[in-house]
Amino acid sequence: MNDCRFAHAFTALQQWLKHQLHADEHFTLWYSAEDSQFVRFNHAKVRQAYPVLQIELTLRLIRDERHSTYHLNLTDDEQLDCQQLAQALEQLRATLAVLPADPYLLLDTDTWTDERVVSGRTPPVSEVIRQVCSLSEGLDMVGIYAGGTLYRGFAHSWGALGWHACSSNTLDWSLFDVSGEAVKTAYAAPDWNVQALSTLFAQAREKLEHLRTPRISLTPGQYRAYLAPAALDEIIGMLSYGGFSAKGFATHQSALQQLKSGVQQLSPLVNIRNQPSTGLEPRFDREGNLTQDVALIEDGKLTGQLINTRSAAEYGLTSNGANTHETPSSLIMEPGDLPDDEVLNALGTGLYISNLWYLNYSDQSAARLTGMTRFATFWVENGKIVAPIETMRFDDTLYNILGSNLLALTREQALFTTTSTYERREVSRYVMPGALLSALTLTL
C-alpha cells in the first residue's frame, strides 16, 4: 500500500482490529476520508473559503449469520481511534446477542488486494480564486468550488484489502441576468484546466447575452428539440434511481420494466454502460465486493442490470458488485456523430434546452418523465438563437425521447461528477452526449 498517511492509518486500524476478534467473529471495515477545499462565490466575489479534513470508519461485526454496523468519525490520532474502535466493538457484540440471523447475508470471503490511485491536479486554493474571479469579472456569478483528494479503503478479516485515492475538482456556477434568469454551468475534471474552464465561461457569457432578449411564450405541444448534455444527464440520472436495479426488476418497480420485457425499446443509437474500471470511484464497494463493468443498454435494448449481494441471494442471481442501492456510479452513454458546432444547424427550428429541472415520474411504469425547462432554454429559427422562452413543463416518455424521436447524439461528451457534499464529497461520474430530438412534448 502507498505511503500516504491515510493509507498508513487505515492499515494500522485493520491490523489492530484483527487481533481483537474472538474465534467465531469476522469483520468488514470501510474507510472514507477527504482532504478538501471549498470556496463559495457570490456576485463574483469570495464569500467563504475553508478546508475540510474528515475521516470516517464503518465497522461491521459478523457472527453466526448475524451482523451489525457501527459508524464513527476518526480523529487522525491512532491511539484515540483504536479506543473508539474498541468501544464500537463491544457495542456491536452486545447488539449481535439479540439479533436474528439474516437469511440474505451473502459475503465475499475471497482474499484479494486492490490498490488504485487516480492521478489528478488540484491547484492551490489561491490559484482557483484568482482564475475564477478573473473569468467572472463584471458578471453576477454565484457558485461553489470543491476540490481535493478523496480516499477509500476496505478490509475484511478473511484477508481482503483495498485502497483507493483520487483527486477531483468541481465548479458548479450560475451567471444571472438582471431579470433573474440564469445560465447554469458545471465544470468537473481530475486535472484542473483553466483553458477548459475559460471555454465554458465564454459559452455561458454568450448564452447570458441571449437571455437579455425579451422572452417569448410557447403554446403546449410538440417541438423539435436539442437536449444539451446537462439536460440529458438529468434524465438518465432520474432513471438511475432503481431503473437498472435487479431488485427493481424482480419486484416490477423499475421504470425500465417495459424495456426489460421487450414491450418497448430505445433507439439503436443508445448504448449505456456502467464502467467503474475507468471512473473515479474505487474498484470495490463498502461491502467488499469487487465492482464489474456492466453493459446496461446495447443498441437500444436492455442487456444488463446492477446486482448487489442481497439481490443475488434473494433472487438467485450472480452479483456484479453493485452498491447497496443498485445505482450506477460511473455511467457512460456512448456518443453519436453530430459535431457540437453543427447542433444549431441540425436543430433548424425548435428548442435548445441547456438544462432540465425538478424531474419526476408522471407514470413510472411507462418511464414517463416530467420536469421544467428552466436555465437558458432558447427558441431557435433557421439555426440561429432567437430568444429565451418562458419556463415550460415537459411530459414525455423515455421511449419517445431516446426511442422513436431520437435523431442523433453528439460526437462530443461532457463529464459530470456529483456536486453533492452532504456529509461528504462523492466520486460518482456520468459521461453524456447531447441529443437531437424530432419532438419533445411541452404541456404547460
TrEMBL record:
InterPro entries registered for this protein in UniProt: Metalloprtase-TldD/E_C, TldD/PmbA_sf
Organism superkingdom: Bacteria
UniProt cross-references to SUPFAM superfamilies, sorted A to Z: Putative modulator of DNA gyrase, PmbA/TldD
Occurrences of domain Metalloprotease TldD/E C-terminal (ranges): 220-439
Protein name in the entry: TldD/PmbA family protein
Source organism: Pseudomonas weihenstephanensis
